Structures are given as C-alpha cells and as structure tokens.
Amino acid sequence: MRSNASGRAYGEGAATRTGRGRAAVLAVGVVLSLALTSCSSTGGKRAEEERAKGAGGKSAVDTPRWKVAMITHSGDGDTFWDIVQSGAEQAAVKDNIEFLYSHDKEAGKQAQLVQAAIDQEVDGIVVSLAKPAAMKTVVAKAVKSGIPVLTINSGQDKSKSFGALAHIGQDEVTAGEAVGEELNERDRKKAVCVLHEQGNVGHEERCDGVREKFDGKIENLYVEGTNMPSVESSLESKLQSDPDIDSVVTLGAPFAGTAAKAADQAGSDAQISTFDLNEKVVSGLQDESITFAVDQQPYLQGYQAVDLLWLYLYNSTMLGGGQPVLTGPQVLTGEDADALEEYTGRGTR
Predict the structure, then answer these.
(1) Most buried pick, 87, 195, 198, 329, via CB within 10 A?
(2) Is 226 among the domain residues?
(3) Which stretches make up the Periplasmic binding protein domain (predicted)?
C-alpha cells in the first residue's frame, strides 16, 4: 500500500510485533481526525493559513500556565531533534505551556538535566531513553515526586517499568523489519548497517530488525557519528574492501547524504537507504541518490508529548492504555518526495 503524501505504512511483516500498539495508533488517529474535522469547518484555505502561522499564535486554552521540561539525548543542530522541538513548541503555544528544552549526548549529563527539572518543580517531564540504565534512577525520582513523565523516541521497552505514563515513538525493531523487507523487494543481497552512536539501544534494535527480515547478509559498521568526515572515510573504506555490498542503511537522516558520497568515492553501486527524514533526504529521494527512507514523524512525537501532558494535567487522561503510541514507521520513496517537499521545507517532516 502506497500513499502519495505519507508513503507506505509497514504492515504485513510487522503484524505480530505491532498488535500491542494498534489500539494506541487508532486512538491517536481518532484525536487527529477530530482535530482535522474541526479545522475543516472553517474552510480549507483558512485552516491552511492557520497552520502556516506556526508557533506564533495565541494559546487556544484557558488553563493554568503549567511548566513542561523536555530532556533528550540529542538536540540543537540535529535535524531530527530540531523537528521534535518544533512540534513540542507549537503544542506548548496552543496549550499555554511554558516549555523548557535541554539535551546532552552523555547519558550522565542528560540525567543531571532531568534532576534539574525536578528541582525546578516542573509540572511534567518528557524524556528520551537512548541509554535507559543511566536514566532509570532519576526518572523514578521524578515519578516519586509526583511529576508525570512521558518518554519519547527511544526506550519503549523500559518506559512503563520506569513509571512513565506512556511512550510515544516507533517500535524500532518493527522499523528495522520494514527496511529488511524493503531490501528484499529490491533484490538486495548484502547490506551494511551504519551505527553512529554506540550504546544507543534504539539503533541496535533497528539493525536487529533489518537482520530479522532481510534474506541477505548484513553487517554492522560502527562509526564516530560526531565526526562526519570520519564517517565518510570509514564507509568508503568498507565499500572499497567489500564490493559485494549492494546496500547501505544509515540510522539518521544527516548520514544518508554522507553515505551516498562515500559510495560514489568508492566507485560502489550500493543503494542508500536511511531512517528518518529531512529536506536533504527528500532531495535525495527525488534525484534517486537515496532509494527509500523510513519516517517516524518526529514532529508528532514532540507535539503529542506536550499535548498529552496537558491533557493529563487538565483532565487526568492519557492515550495508549499502557501500550506505546506509535508514530511510525512509514516507508517513503521517490514517489512520495514531491508531496513531502513542502513539509520538510518548513521543518515539520
């Protein structure tokens, strides 16, 4: 199944793993459907004008000005997290929320930022769990102190046991399985999965998912993600040493273009695919330097996290029923690129 605007939703191969999250997805769909119905009553043109205003509008609610802190394992300058932050900020405007954002790639320092939010007595916390072991104690402190916590993006399997109200993101293994099946459809035989952040459980799960469904051979390649020239040289060397590699899978949008360049420098015909989406990836889909991308809708992760905390503070309600609220995966190809260009250009996809 392909859709002009949103790509192909991964379905058959993930049925056994995503059953537990289907109700959560349907619940999100109901909320979004109601929101879109409300907008359409004002007329399509007016609704689009209102959306185009972005975060500069006024609050749509008359509730106390609660304070919500979001603390993630990556941030400013990373196109994925810029989109997450944008979604959270727009929800905060709508919900009259004072939004605080901070991040640190080092798990220990990320935990310190969560502690700082607790000390500020915020009304809610949103946190990513890329390295769950380092975050367990401080998340428990927040919950014990009465601060509602939501997790996003990574740490789905640990979220509930840590005391979080819900997890918002994609099932990383399922997303990897979607890539594996896509590689099979393209008759790929040997792939390399490029991991740019060692210790990130979500990244390992993605490559594990590819391995689970891919009929060919796959190797993990660990690179220094903070040094893009090093990433390029490592991948170029790998492709030169193994001409049988016909597919490169990167785990973040900023690395897809680098992978394409490395393949070109190595004289390799390997196809490039990636997790996540940004403006450059859409351009790559259009010029076919990137064959497909798997989108987990980061804007929705940020927006829904803040909006769900507002709903909880206002009405003690929560989506998911204890199961993850899924925002992906969606497989996107060149067929979808033109329809997505507007949204990546404004930084919401």
Answers:
(1) 329
(2) yes
(3) 69-313
Asked if residue 134 and residue 179 are part of one domain, the reply reads no
Q: Domain check: are 68 and 80 in the same one?
A: yes
Which CATH number covers residue 135? 3.40.50.2300
Average pLDDT over residues 12-33: 39
Q: How far apart are CA 326 and CA 199, in angstroms?
A: 23
CA distance 167 to 150: 6
224 — alpha (psi -120 to 50), left (phi > 0) or beta? beta
Whether 307 and 276 share a structural domain: no
Number of domains in the chain: 2
Both 223 and 322 in one domain: the answer is no
Q: Label residue 21 by pLDDT band (50, 70, 90).
A: very low
92-122, pLDDT tens digit by residue?
999 999 999 999 999 999 999 999 999 999 9
For residue 24, pLDDT beyond 50:
no
19 and 82 share one domain:
yes
Euclidean distance between CA atoms 268 and 248, whole angstroms:
10
pLDDT tens readout for residues 238-260: 999 999 999 999 999 999 999 99
**Residues 125 and 221 placed together within one structural domain of the fold:** no
Rounded CA gap, 124 and 101, in Å?
Answer: 12
Domain of 185 in residue numbering reads as 172-294
pTM: 0.80
- Would you give the distance in Å from CA 266 to the centre of its chain? 30
Task: Indicate whether 217 belongs to any domain.
Answer: yes
Angle between the N-to-C axes of helices 279-287 and 334-345, in degrees from 0 to 180, rounded to the nearest 10: 150
- For residue 148, being part of any structural domain is answered with yes
| DSSP β-bridge partners for residue 9 | 330
pLDDT in tens, 144-189: 999 999 999 999 999 999 999 999 999 999 999 999 999 999 999 9
